Amino acid sequence: MPDLLGDIPAGTQMILAFFGLLAVGLPVAFALGLSALYAMWLIGFGFDLAGDLIASGIAKYSLLAIPFFILAGALMGSLGIAERMIRFFRVLIGNLPGGMGVVGTIVCLFWGAVSGSGPASVAAIGPMLIRAMEEDGYDRAFAAGLVCTGAAFSIVIPPSIGLVIYGVIAETSISQLFIAAVVPGTFMGLSMLAVLPFARRRVRTRVALDAISPDPYAGLPYGSRLWRSFRDSLWGLLTPVVILGGIYAGVFTPTEAALVATVYALAIGAFVYRTLTLAGLYETLADAAASSAVVMLIVAYASLFGWVVTVEDLVGTYSTALLGISDNPSVVLLVIMIILLIAGMFMDAVTVMFISLPIFMPVVHQLGWDPVWFGVLLMINLAIGLITPPVGINLYVAANVTRLPIERVARGAIPFLLASLVGLAVVAAFPDMSLGLTRLIGG
To answer: Which of 13, 61, 4, 72 is nearest to 37 (CA)?
Structure first.
């Protein structure tokens, strides 16, 4: 291979090797590591350097937020906190026009402020929401498309694992990123409501929506049901207030907030709802550890990949080529967004960021774009990639949950995809949507 590709720089060969390994089905983390090791061999560096690079890549304090936010989200699901929140929103909104479609949208947005992971959100709250929407007359594929989209915006709405990683790579304030993402993330989520009137719904065949998660207050007047369901879910509803309020008030950092969220979830399960058991805790810890390991493996091997990118000056080469496309910053931004959208179809957000940001950030600085605004825009773009046919990751998770062919789930997601693309264009066109709140709080 070296003779065959001798005229191609080692860094470019590494990128080609990475996509080749992905094409044959190798997991992303190992594709990153093997392609980077191959490039290091071509360059002539010893493999003994790899250990030091991996260690330095993951030995970053801010990255501690990732496993703890994942664990906090898993605990919210396993301890019944998510179920109580869904029940409250169902009582509050369920009888309004749009019914469970509105409930599903709001629950997905709210869950984004707890979980921070798109595919994990589909798996955690998807089964309950999709079945409840079916009960309310929605087509199952349409319901799956709504949950896919709402869960995708979990990586936009703070606290977001994606924003934590972006802050680390781009050396940008994670707190400012969280603040800047609040309005755009909410706007993107609420834009989904514009799709609901176009959904074809069956006439309800059942009166109650409580077959999925029985309502202990069924039969009571609406006001009593609403109050009791609110009281029952209050501690869960306060979770984003505790996490984000503490960060914005300066009580703790985003990294410390992840640990606070975990302890808070454990305290609710142990002392309020009394749903915490040793067996359940062990299972949740195991699931969260597995999910965290996947992310951290990517982070670890991406450090090798990033080192080769730096040594081979791929940053300078590709960013110069990108800037040479046009003198118009809007055209350059459009090209970047298209690249991210396509990449997000095939890879998770963490991998895309580690590969693309070393190239894109010099362009961001060269064109005078605010890195906080760009970070929010990037997250929205990667969220859309999670629901973009034919390979969006959330589509596969939803297909597994619903037992539907992925083609049907993809068709159900298309209306939400179109609405999301319009929302992305609005956020790109109006930077103050992202930066206004940051300036207000910062000033």
So the answer is: 13
Which structure tokens are listed for 350?
A: 């963490």
Contacts 24+ apart (CB under 8 A), 16-20: 18/305, 18/355
230-234, 302-306, 330-334: the lowest-pLDDT one:
302-306
Report which residue type is found at 298: I
> What is the distance between the alpha carbons of residues 149 and 119, in angstroms, rounded to a whole number?
10
Question: What is the C-alpha radius of gyration for the chain, rounded to an integer number of angstroms?
Answer: 22
Q: For the chain, give every domain's residue range.
A: 27-442
Distance CA 100, CA 91 (A): 10
- pLDDT band at residue 116 under the 50/70/90 scheme: low
Whether residue 309 contacts residue 11, with contact meaning beta carbons closer than 8 Å, is answered with yes
pLDDT of residue 203: 52
The answer, yes or no, to whether the previous bond of 159 is cis (omega within 30 of 0) is yes
* Joined tokens for residue 163: 């924003």
How many C-alpha atoms does 420 have within 13 Å on its Cβ side? 28
Give the position of tokens 């609005």: 426
Cα(84)–Cα(133) distance, rounded to whole angstroms? 17
Q: Is the dihedral of CA 267, 270, 271, 274 positive or negative?
A: positive
The overall average pLDDT reported for the chain is 79
CA-wise closest residue to 254 among 14, 61, 391, 393: 61
Are the C-beta atoms of residues 373 and 119 closer than 8 Å to each other?
A: no
pTM > 0.70: yes
Whether 341 has a pLDDT exceeding 50, the answer reads yes
Strand partners, 138: 201
Q: Is the pLDDT of residue 345 over 80?
A: no
* Mean pLDDT value of segment 203-232: 67
Which residues have C-beta within 8 Å of that of residue 11, sequence separation ≥ 6? 39, 308, 309, 311, 312, 313, 314
pLDDT one-digit tens code per residue, 36-73? 888 888 887 766 777 777 777 777 776 777 788 778 87
138 backbone dihedrals φ, ψ, rounded to 5° = -80, 145
Whole-number Å distance between alpha carbons of 351 and 205: 45
Q: How far apart are CA 110 and CA 82, in angstroms?
A: 10
Long-range contacts of 430-434, Cβ-Cβ distance < 8 Å, separation of 24 or more: 431/370, 431/373, 433/183, 433/184, 433/187, 434/180, 434/181, 434/183, 434/184, 434/372, 434/373, 434/376, 434/377
**Closest by alpha carbon to 91, among 291, 280, 231?**
231
